[in-house]
Amino acid sequence: MVTFVDRVTLHLRAGKGGNGCVSVRREKFKPLAGPDGGNGGHGGDVVLVADPQVTTLLSYHHSPHRSAGNGGFGMGDNRSGYHGESLELPVPVGTVVKDADGETLVDLIEPGMRFVAAPGGQGGLGNAALANPKRKAPGFALLGTPGWEGDVFLELKTVADVALVGFPSAGKSSLIAAVSAARPKIADYPFTTLHPNLGVVQAGDVRFTVADVPGLIEGASEGKGLGLEFLRHVERCTALVHVLDCATLEPGRDPLTDLDVILEELGAYPVPEGQTPLLERPQLVALNKVDVPEAKDLADLVRPELEARGYRVFEISTVSHEGLRPLTFALADIIARHRADLAAAPAPERVVIRPKGAEREFEIRVEGGTYGNLYRILGTKPLRWVQQTDFQNEEAVGFLADRLEKLGVEDELFRVGAVAGSTVVIGEGDGVVFDWHPSLSSAAELMTAPRGTDPRLDLNPRRTTSQRRERYHERMDAKAEARAELESERIAGADADWSEDDES
Fold this sequence. Notes:
The protein has about 500 residues and is α/β, with parallel strands linked by helices. The protein has helices spanning about 60, 125-130, 170-180, 225-230, 255-270, 295-310, 325-345, 380-385, 395-405, 410-415, 465-504, and strands at about 5-15, 45-50, 65, 85-90, 95-100, 105-110, 115-120, 150-155, 160-165, 195-205, 205-210, 240-245, 285-290, 310-315, 365, 375-380, 425, 430-435.
């Protein structure tokens, strides 16, 4: 049994950006000739591509987890890391991409359309790119940022020129099998068609596609039957063909009642903004099964009333192929005129989406806590800078402090009431926690310190070897001074005793 899948959830992970390199060029007779650490490569993107050769989402239903390649690390001698390999996922034309909240991201209705569903991470800068006249040999590099990771929802909406609508077992599948090469499953029980079938029809010089939509019942627009699942496949059709069963034996069923019910359901179904409502599109009526004598009589009876409503009526039989040729040529005429109108219409202005700059590049939210207020810094730049920082390197932490100070975070913290020692968190959730000290806002480039260290950070309370040596010499000098003082006192006392003996 063929499985039709028109909704899938993709779990995407873009590639991580490579870390920058910390390196110093070494040449003969040129020790420490300058930084030459290369940049890390960018992570690969996950791209959705509308491919006319793809007709199903079944492959993504079985393998929903997709990931792109990571970027390479930077290397010495100014060698940049390689870029991660992007992953292109072909999807059928007519696929709608939605985010986790159900908001539509893009509608891939044209062949070749591309959409970056998961952007890759940014590669970190090497110390060669971070060098400037004041910081000539940085002892740190920036880390690569992680790529986007999350879920997107794909929803397939059939792209066809004509849609066949009607009650179950009205003969829609038989009709598409009679006018095209499609071979759908046909049986004498309701809901035989469980998924849309597409067929290509050639009428004269016009070729168009016909979609066989599963049968609709009363309340389909509210989720009854299969209507809510497959009415969306009618959204993109140019014309509608109402297939009415004139040979039904069910009580309370007749072509006019069936048509009224279907029209009500089509009118209740909301179409996306910008599309023509379903009831405002060209509609034809096909009275099916006229090969049955009773059905022929019923068709002759209801035809005047249908024509009085403004419909073009065709009496057809999918068994004897009676009336199929006029129906297909009438549909071809509608499709040809629609295509001519589209060709004559001015090309729509290409929409260029540019990201809007935020009014504020960051915000500080004060949150109460058990041990006092907590100051949370939110914003794209602070979060990206934290991701790029190697917190094992003092100089990298000092560089982060300089970037935050230039952005105005220091002044804003003072404004919201932060004091020295206040808890500051960058990012949502756990984030990165700091004990804020305003002294970190001074310019590190103007300070002299060994590579990889920052004099503003006293992260290691242990004394260095030079400090221990200095303390040792200080103690030895103090002991020598004490011994000299005692020796001078002893000599002074001995001289006094000799003087007393001479007097006696």
